[in-house]
């Protein structure tokens, strides 16, 4: 973030200065322009700026009329907001397990639930998450949407601009297939604001209209409230900054992919793949590496993490506990998700940002090699 700011400082300060000079800090020209630019970039008709990705999800679920008595299928291997948007709308999540190779929700299991669940009629939607920037099979999502007549809400908080190559040669971006989709501009995201921000995406005029008024207290005309909405607006300063960064986004994605390729090559070269399972690169921008997450086998994850920390390498665990095991969701029907539980014990996110230097990547991998040499003596 700081390195990126260094290279964009002049452009960002100019953009912010022009907002301050205009005196229009809320719902001004930058939000409007940014909404148009992001809608064009992603191939959707409408983009509606909101205060953060969590609000975007909450409003997206509401826009589909999902409420008490309804069910929504999703993954438990995700950030809290993917699930709280369902429960905050008084509906019930149905968790299915993940695909072990991609960490994304297992689409076979989604279809199985849609075919066999006793309350099938009450399942109104599916929320897939393009986790760590890796697109869920959009062609299959379209098939599920049409075959089972369920709504799709794509959680693209980690995947802005990631693509999927369809069998007919078409390339679509994540967020363009769902009935309604969302983005997060949390500072660490691939397209990160200098504060909070989020976006709702849809090509449905009715959904767009609902979301536009819901974010401003449900009022189309000020002080006349059609629905009981909330205050959730993207502010002008963040929109101005995000417009600067959007222009560089594809370049950043390509750099992230280069970094991932280098990590993979080095883990292979140092013979570490018996301990470390690397993520696959996938086709072109099908994965934009919001995070570079490896699996650390045979119970070494936590010790390796401590070792790396002692060497000055910052890592993170996304996620240490599945949503099906969270205390706040303990009232939900219990479910066994073996692959999710295993991922929670094995995943480790290594440093990943476009400005990461080659020698820093080499250093991280050499520290992993030293751990397995010195600490394990194997
Ligand atoms: C998968 C996922 N969904 C939703 C969100 C919520 O976004 P925000 O932090 O902008 O509220 C995040 C953010 O971390 C996320 O990673």
Characterise the protein shown here:
With 378 residues, the protein is an alpha/beta fold. It folds into 2 domains: 2-246, Type I PLP-dependent aspartate aminotransferase-like (Major domain) (Aspartate Aminotransferase, domain 2, 3-Layer(aba) Sandwich); 249-375, Aspartate Aminotransferase, domain 1, CATH 3.90.1150. 40% of the residues lie in helices and 15% in strands. The chain has helices at 2-22, 29-42, 53-63, 81-87, 107-116, 138-148, 205-214, 236-246, 249-269, 301-310, 338-346, 358-375; strands at 46-50, 71-75, 92-96, 123-127, 151-155, 163-165, 171-173, 180-184, 198-202, 219-221, 224-225, 276-277, 292-296, 347-350. Helix 1 (2-22) packs across helix 8 (236-246). Pyridoxal-5'-phosphate binds next to helix 3 and helix 4.
How would you name the CATH homologous superfamily of the largest domain? Answer: Type I PLP-dependent aspartate aminotransferase-like (Major domain)
**Dominant shape:** globular
Radius of gyration from the alpha-carbon trace, in angstroms: 21 Å
Which molecules are bound in this entry?
pyridoxal-5'-phosphate
Strand content: 15-25%
Mean pLDDT: 97
Unreliable spans are none
The level of helicity is: 40-55%
- CATH C-level name of the largest domain: Alpha Beta
Distance from N terminus to C terminus (CA atoms, Å) equals 37 Å
Largest sheet: 7 strands, mixed
């Amino acid at each position: 973030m700081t390195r990126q700011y260094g290279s964009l400082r002049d452009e960002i300060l100019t953009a912010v200065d022009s907002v301050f000079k205009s005196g229009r800090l809320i719902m001004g020209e930058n939000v409007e322009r940014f909404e148009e630019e992001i809608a064009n970039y992603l191939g959707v008709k409408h983009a509606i700026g909101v205060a953060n990705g969590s609000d975007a999800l909450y409003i997206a679920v509401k826009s589909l009329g999902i409420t008490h008595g309804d069910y929504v299928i999703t993954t438990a291997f995700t950030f809290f907001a993917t699930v709280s948007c369902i429960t905050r709308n008084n509906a019930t999540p149905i968790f299915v397990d993940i695909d072990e190779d991609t960490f994304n929700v297992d689409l076979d299991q989604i279809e199985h639930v849609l075919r066999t669940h006793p309350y099938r009629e009450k399942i109104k939607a599916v929320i897939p998450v393009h986790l760590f920037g890796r697109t869920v099979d959009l062609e299959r999502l379209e098939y599920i949407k049409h075959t089972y007549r369920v709504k799709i809400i794509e959680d693209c908080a980690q995947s802005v601009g990631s693509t999927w190559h369809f069998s007919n040669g078409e390339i679509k971006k994540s967020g363009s297939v769902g009935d309604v989709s969302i983005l997060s501009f949390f500072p660490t995201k691939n397209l990160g604001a200098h504060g909070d921000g989020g976006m709702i995406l849809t090509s449905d005029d009715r959904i767009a209209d609902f979301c536009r008024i819901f974010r401003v207290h449900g009022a189309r005309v000020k002080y006349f409230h059609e629905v009981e909405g909330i205050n959730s607006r993207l502010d002008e300063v963040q929109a101005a900054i995000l417009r600067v960064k959007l222009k560089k986004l594809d370049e950043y994605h390509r750099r992230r992919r280069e970094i991932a390729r280098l990590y993979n090559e080095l883990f292979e070269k140092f013979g570490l793949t018996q301990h470390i399972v690397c993520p696959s690169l996938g086709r072109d921008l099908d994965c934009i590496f919001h995070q570079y997450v490896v699996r650390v086998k045979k119970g070494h994850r936590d010790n390796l993490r401590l070792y790396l920390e002692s060497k000055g390498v910052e890592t993170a665990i996304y996620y240490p506990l599945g949503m099906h095991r969270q205390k706040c969701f303990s009232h939900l029907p219990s479910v066994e998700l073996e692959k999710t539980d295993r991922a929670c014990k094995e995943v480790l996110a290594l440093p990943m940002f476009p400005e990461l230097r080659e020698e820093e990547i080499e250093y991280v991998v050499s520290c992993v090699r030293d751990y397995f040499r010195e600490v394990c003596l194997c």
